[in-house]
Design brief:
Radius of gyration: 14 Å
Strand order of the largest sheet: 1-2
Distance between the termini: 48 Å
CATH superfamily: BFD-like [2Fe-2S]-binding domain
Strand content: 5-15%
CATH topology: Arc Repressor Mutant, subunit A
CATH class: Mainly Alpha
Largest sheet: 2 strands, antiparallel
Order of helices and strands: EEHHHH
Number of domains: 1
CATH architecture: Orthogonal Bundle
Number of strands: 2
Length: 68
Amino acid sequence: MYVCICRAVTDNQIRQEVSHGASTMREVGQRLGVGTQCGKCSKHARSVIREAIANRPMEDPAIWEPSA
């Protein structure tokens, strides 16, 4: 579904950016342009970002622990 009509950005594109490390509206805006023109999509875009972050798979903590 289109979230930002001005820049033709979909919710799937926003989720993809979150999966590639974006975690704020500013980061997604810089990468996709969402929310940078008229701004009417910002509220919905933020909710998609929050949802995508909440559903992001947890990293394996064992990867980051130093080996003994």
